Amino acid sequence: MPAAFENLAFAQHRDTLRYATIRGGGYRPSIRRFHVGDYVYLQQTAPTTLDVTAGHTILRVREVLPSGVLLLEGRDDVVWKDHVCNCAPCHLPNVDGTMDPSLAIVRAGLRCMLCGSAGKAARMLVCDRCSRGWHMLCLTPPIYVIPTGRWVCPRCTS
After folding, report:
1. 127: domain range?
2. How far is CA 5 from the centre of its chain?
3. Which helix (H) or strand (E) holds 20?
4. Which of 61, 65, 66, 79 has the fewest Cβ atoms within 10 Å of its own Cβ atom?
5. Strands 54-64 and 133-135
6. E strand intervals along the chain
7. What is the number of other CB atoms lying within 10 angstroms of the CB of residue 28?
8. Rounded to whole angstroms, how far apart are CA atoms 18 and 120?
């Protein structure tokens, strides 16, 4: 029994020293350095403490801002903006870096700029400049085939 109390005293002393180091300003967390072209996992908040915080989505660093914010792009060519503290490096050697805009998914609740409806998301185009939604059949003239590459809405072209 005395050995257990001795171990407890050691643990309390170690925790006291650690707390003093952290609160005293001596502790500096290491900031990860990312460069343009690196692949990262975007860490997301976990619903419970048992879940892993790293996501399954691998994003590529498009730009590193001086404030520590990263501009990230996915395979669907959608740009994410998040701080370097929320990113984990991806060291997989076989990451496919090709862009495929057809993988883009219209976010839930996005309304058409012309009719105001949020329905028919499968037939909605999202502008690559302003990220507004436009139903293909609401446009003048209507578009019947999903365009390849980047698409810019009538508002941004004028």
Report:
1. 105-157
2. 47
3. helix 2-23
4. 66
5. unpaired
6. 39-43, 54-64, 69-73, 79-83, 87-89, 124-126, 133-135
7. 6
8. 56
Residue 147 domain flag: yes
- The number of distinct structural domains making up the chain is 2
Task: Confirm if 136 and 124 have CB atoms less than 8 A apart.
Answer: yes
Q: Report yes or no on 115 lying in a domain.
A: yes
3-state SS, one letter per residue, for 33-51 = CCCCCCEEEEECCCCCCCC
DSSP H or E stretch at residue 29: none
Let me know if residue 152 belongs to a domain.
yes
pLDDT tens, residue order, the chain (158 aa) = 677 778 888 888 888 888 887 777 766 666 778 889 888 887 765 555 555 554 567 888 989 988 888 888 877 767 778 888 888 888 887 777 776 655 566 666 778 888 888 777 777 888 777 777 888 888 888 888 887 777 788 888 87
Asked if 54 and 85 sit in the same domain, the reply is yes
Q: What pairs with residue 54 in β-bridges?
A: 43
Residue 40, CB-side half-sphere exposure with 13 Å CA sphere: 28
- Burial of 106: CB neighbours in 10 Å, binned 0-12, 13-18, 19+: middle
Instruction: Give the chain's end-to-end CA distance (angstroms, integer).
Output: 82
